[in-house]
Amino acid sequence: MRRALALWGMALLLSFSSPARAQVIAEAPPPPFPDPKKFARGFFASGELGAFVFIGRAAKYAPAGPTFGVRLGYDITRWLAVQAHVSGTSADANLPPPTIGQSFQLLLYAAEARLQLQIRRVALSLEAGAGAVQITSNILDQVNVTKGAFSLGVIGGVGLDYHTLNRHFSVGLDVDYLWLQGWTSSHGLSATAYLRYTH
What we know:
Blueprint: H1 2-16, E1 43-56, E2 65-75, E3 80-93, E4 102-119, E5 122-135, E6 150-163, E7 169-180, E8 186-198
Antiparallel strand pairs: 1-2, 1-8, 2-3, 3-4, 4-5, 5-6, 6-7, 7-8
């Protein structure tokens, strides 16, 4: 009888005691990959390839042609960069007879600034700059398009950048408008794809 009462008392005591709660300690989940904060920032170089189209009076005498270039720059912050831009375009000159079979190259030497908005692996950018534009032939002087070998050029455009899983590399597309101060009512538009390496 005493043993039964003792067991019954222990059961009653245990029923009133507060249940033990185990504390679970877990590490915070890692940030989703890739983390834009881990992307390389600083000095960068990019190579670009695409097409250039003349707009205005020059379009009557020069069709679209291939363009290629390089940009070397530095990321000041995650959203602002400065860069030097050198590009070249080759085009045929479609002039009235007897001038036939002529071509020329257009070279751009510009300094630019780029504003960038990073959204995970994708970045949207605006860029603008100015510099010198050189034409390697005076062939378009004959039709009053060019006046001398050099002109002031102002460039502005938009870009879309996609970062790879490697923190140093990204690929993208740029569309740029080029205003040619020394040409008669003539401008240009380029669309290029690029590969960028950031150190």
